[in-house]
Amino acid sequence: MKYLYFIATVFILFNFSILDSYAQKPHIDGSLFKEGLLELDFKDNWRYQPGDNPEWSNPEFDDSDWYKINPIDLKAYRMPDSLWSGYGWWRITFTADPKTIESIERLYFFSWGAGEIYLDGELVESYGRFSTDSQLEETHTPNYAPDRPLKITPREVHTLAVRYSNHQAKNNFRIFRYFAENLGFDIGFSTAVRAKYSDFRYPNSFATLSVIVAVLLILLVLHVLLYFKFRKEEPYLVITLITFFFLCAAVCAHILLFVELNGFTNPIFSSILNSTAFGLGYALLPYSLSSLFRIQKFYWTRHLVWLALLRTANYFIHIFNFILFDATIILAVIVLMVIIMRKAIKEKNRSALHVTIGAIGTSVFLLVNRMVNAELISLSTFFYYVDLILLYISYPLGIYIYITHQYGRLFLAMEQEVEERTQQLNATIRDLTKTQHELSLKNNQNVLLLKEIHHRVKNNLEVVSGLLALQSAKMDDPTMQEVMLASQNRVQSMGILHQKLYQSEHLAFIEMKNYFENLCINILDSYNESERIKVNIDMKNLELDVDTAVPLGLIVNELLTNSLKYAFPNGEKGNIELSLEKLKEDDFQLKISDNGVGKPLEAKVKGTGFGTQLVDLLTRQIDGKIIQDVTNGTRILINFKSQLAGSSNG
Prior knowledge:
Blueprint lengths: L1 H23 L2 E2 L8 E3 L7 E4 L36 E10 L1 H6 L2 E6 L2 E6 L2 E6 L20 E2 L8 E8 L3 H8 L8 E6 L1 H8 L1 H29 L4 H20 L12 H18 L1 H8 L12 H12 L5 H25 L3 H24 L7 H93 L4 H26 L5 E3 H16 L5 E5 L5 E3 H22 L6 E9 L4 E8 L15 H12 L3 E5 L4 E8 L9
Parallel strand pairs: 1-4, 12-14
Antiparallel strand pairs: 2-10, 3-4, 4-9, 5-8, 5-10, 6-7, 6-9, 11-13, 14-15, 15-17, 16-17
Helix pairs in contact: 5-6, 5-12, 6-7, 6-8, 7-9, 8-10, 9-10, 10-11, 11-12, 12-13, 13-14, 13-15, 14-15, 15-16
Protein name: histidine kinase
GO molecular function, one term: kinase activity
Catalytic activity: ATP + protein L-histidine = ADP + protein N-phospho-L-histidine
């Protein structure tokens, strides 16, 4: 019996010692893992000490006199200012089953500060760059990268120490209040189950956002089209705003997929803009339904948007409990939408059921999301993503059926409108065709008349030219014969122009190159100089209006005649260069030059001087300016403008 009492006493003392050690130190085992993740959220076992001392990473260091402060989800307002100067150390000691230690593969750490993680005295990981100086600190930005690998060597007791700095946390809280990121951090261990999720966290989140954005963008475009088609239909504008707000909220909630933010900028996008945008969109749901189904009794629900703004303000000036406020509003919105749905169904609006079920679905999934965030319930990762997707797209998917119905009505209305406009257009086309036919007949008559006029003018000018030739033949005075020949050539230049007009398709324009060629041939023949003098016309095909071509032809006639008469005395052979060039829109340059003897600018005018006066007069008529060069033969440039602006082309 003594031996039995002794063995029993030893057994009891041994168990009490074990119980005491477990009472002093948290113990982790497989039952604490949730989907492969175990957060070290042991509230009474964390120890905190302000300041910095590398010796605090030593597992043997006695931290019994440290402060009991849990860093997990630590808000800035919960940390006394006397204990936080921007940095400090947290320590926790725990025991673990060997199998649990063996199953750990990753270290999970979530923080907007900077931290160094020491396990059993060894530095195992760093996040950002710890510093006691706020200017040298580089805070960590949580992203969608996988958790860091970690293998733990089994031992009886493990000590985890976190050297941590977050200088901006207090200042951020003073600015953003409850929107501010936590002062502390989340830390834990994960197994292969969590590691698999962690490796695919970025593609999973990106896929989730892609589904949400794709659906919302499609619906946003459809509603914008509906709104612009039916400007008087206010529901389309409201639903467009809701879809836009949901889209903005979804993008802001996943902003870290695309942009690296910090503890100051992240609250602006991920918290304030996200919360406000979704709140505004959600607050408009009852009003969108009442206006969609024209239930004027509930048009007052548009004022619910002020509750969304009040909710945002509540984060800065705390009045209501966040969870209670959200739950009350969500339940109230659900009740309102059920009442609206019942009234719409009584009016035999079949689309109301689908639309309102979608809206109520959004409310239910929002309520679940808020309960998960408040840790009142827990969901697996898969169901959390499903809840997140349905939260954003339930209402848009609910109204998709309604959109289909509305677009069906739109297409029918458009088809009828197109048919009516087609009939009107056909009638207009018939009237235009008739008018065009009449105009064409009149135009053809006018063209024939104008051609006949030009033909008769040309014939009359030939008669005048013939009379001049007869008169010249009866004169014995060579000077008079020369005058008569010059007059005959002037008449011929105009006759050639009218001949070109009635032979051309365009009665208002003359092709100048061919006209100059015929004019030069006629002048050379009249003076019988075709063999001795060669005229080279170097220019592109160019059309000019009649008002410009007539004086230009007379000018070329005078200048060419002068060259034939005076540039090549004593039967010398020579060349004359003639060209017309378009300088810009309505500006042209006529150039005529010869390689003859030339003449001094001060030389006395030979002959009567009538030709020179005529050239000056005609040049002024076409707004031209004459430039002479007699240094090597004679070269005359005339810069002028077309008399019909914009009518000429090259």
